Give the backbone structure.
Amino acid sequence: MKKSVLTVNQLILIGVGGIIGAGFFLASGLAIHTAGPIVLLDYAVSAFIMSEVFHALSEMIVANPVEGSFRVYAEEALGDIGGFLSGWVYWTAGVFIMSSEVTASAIFTKFWFPAVPLWVFSLIYSILIIIINILGTKDFGTIEAWFSTIKVIALIVITISGILTLLGFFGKSNEIGIHNYYSHGGFAPNGIKGFLGALLMSLIPFGGIEVTAMLASKAKNPQKYVPIARKYIVSFLTILYILSIAVLIGVVPWHVISSNVSPFIKLLSYTKIPFIESIMNFVILTAALTTMNGAMYAVTQILYSLGKGRFAPTFLSKKTRKDVPIYALFMSSFGLFIAVILSYVLPKDVYEYITSATGIIQFFNWIIILYTFIKYMPMLRNKNPDYFKYHKHKSPIKSWITIILIITVMLSTLTVPKQTIGLIGGIVLLCLIFILYFVSSKIKLFDIW
């Protein structure tokens, strides 16, 4: 990646594009099918959580812009255990995000080739992403910004198409209308259990803000432009997500939405525009692949950072002539092939299993970020007193509330059997990371590395 600074527009586009992915286009179907129309409230709660985590990250970045971002802050504020857990938990979550995205990409591709086994497409896309990253990307920021623009335009087009369908521009249908919000069992057809069961799948589409945070230190004038980027990213995503879901439910009754294909493809079928379903499915597939590519870049960089530090073997910091941390890349690719195996063994349920486990690990890292923020801000007052002369920092109450909400989201998976399996898998992985830390510190691996 170039050393040049990113403009605020690039940062906003990368931030939005890094967040919009299969987690919204496919997981939204699972969330709606579980909760019904009350899923809109799930997305509102999720938007608040994402906003507070992003606020915590951007505040630390603005006060102390450094490469390594939240991992460096966690190490300074919480000690070795903070730096180790933040880095390795994020890497593990990122690997599973890639696994989730490659599975979603395979599901989208089966829209055209339903007879081909899921694992075949999972394998093809895994190899493709690895090759792209081996070749290196000098203009990563520019390329991601362009693909982000495609994603945003696609979601806007989908939303506008849905609004026009609701208004009857593409013909009348008895199943289309605002009655879908209260028919078919009411606004909350599955009660509090349905609301809780949809929390994880509604929060997952907001994941990915860590990539923006890692790039924010490269932004032009971070103190001025990072808060601006945060405001636009949070506002834009909140409005676009909730509006598009509201329109979707108005057009397609919640109880007929499938969890095996993107519900937005069903919405577009009402427009009667030739090939519109295939066109938008291709765009959504592109969104998933670019999100996976961004995740691969992020996890490779965090593993490279761990290798340069004290928390991973030094060989992980070795780079190729094209400035690619090749060993970190190969190690990060491991999760993709786990997804391929699971796609072969559990083709019907693999996405929900992987995505649930991904959410547990990813949002545990959000808890680390929020707790780091609470502990780190008093330290920053001493490190950068000039910043706090003009910036009045608020109390940490909202951060504590957000931590409680994230824990609630994680525990809500107990209401959905398939997500419970993901919860157990996520907890097992977190326990392994904790064990790895204590074993490494016990035998003084940090000194050897």
Remarks:
- The domain at 8-448 is CATH 1.20.1740.10 (Amino acid/polyamine transporter I).
